[in-house]
Amino acid sequence: MRLIVAAFALIIIVCVAAFGAIYSPKTSEPVGASLPAAPAEPPRAVTTLMDDSNAPYTAGATDNAGVGAPQVMAQAAPARPAGPATAPLPAAAAAQPASPASAASSCPGNPNALGVSRVVEIDTTGGPQFGFEHFKEHDFLRPGEVVLTFDDGPWPKNTPAVLAALAAHCTKAIFFPIGLHATYEPGILKQVAAAGHAVGSHTWCHQDLSKTKGKCLINGKLQAYEFDPKDEIEKGISAVRMAVGGPTAPYFRFPALRHPPELVSYLAQRNIAVFSTDLDSFDFKMRKPEQVRQSVMAKLKKNGKGIVLMHDFQHATAEAAMDLLNDLKAGGYKVVFMKPKFPVTTIASYDEAVAKSSKLPSDGLSTSNVVRTISE
Predict the structure, then answer these.
(1) Which uninterrupted H or E stretch holds 47?
(2) CA–CA dist 27, 18 (Å, integer)
(3) What would you report as the CA-atom Rg of the chain, rounded to the nearest whole angstrom?
(4) Does 86 or 174 have the greater pLDDT score?
(5) Domains in the chain: ranges and CATH
(6) What is residue 365's predicted lDDT score, i.e. its pLDDT?
């Protein structure tokens, strides 16, 4: 009897040892060791820098691209060595989302501010094109997201009114000024840049670049005007950059959205992004602010999202700006700010031409900005 019991015990011990040998390699294998390395993500023209649907955007110090730095930037999590899974953090140590109270406090005086829900960085290398009215290259907006853009400024009273509305809502936009207007009102354009908005360009004198002849309103007098389209582009870029007195964005919008393919290719060589629009407000046809609001909101309701084209040159738009931003907030829309990765470069010969034809300094920078003593 004892021999039978001992035999059964021996059989059990052998079985346990055999099963242990079979399963022990699997349990000792490091977590994730069998997973292949993730392929590197290809470069993209649009990269999200900040994504916060609740908190209004607060511009930091103006960076070298002439726009406010995002307050929150998405960062890649550091790599963790393969090994056993770590225990979860206690609830008290976990990161907490911003509360409505803290979000509201980042826009003083307006607890219901529209803010900026997302900041995207635009790499303009190769001249990416935006706006579904003419280009289908980049569709990066999510449902309910809008990009605010304003053309034809800077202009007295109207541009400052638009700036005041944007500031009251702690939100950001892209401005496409006319070069000649920039020479008239450099002080206003400096305010646009100082407020953290992106400043692109919109030609020297708002000419149809599919032609070489037009008329230009110079100092209140309409004059016949012959031009080289590339000169129109470059003089506008130089004038805006010089009026701002600092870096501006490599963003360009064609007047009347007429974009000859050869000029789109030229801008691509210059690493300048071309903007069309998703929603044209046609505010230049309107005289009442209510019409501007209705136009934008009706088109947004139909399309659900988009790059919105308006004009800070237009009085009706300036009057509508505050109420329109209120409408966007009430409608649940979210503003996306398109921040350039690097500033535009101007061409010296055009800088000189603009300096000769206007009162703008040749480089827009004082000596104290160019030369700084760091040791004596």
Answers:
(1) strand 46-51
(2) 15
(3) 29
(4) 174
(5) 46-70+107-201+239-363 (3.20.20.370)
(6) 45
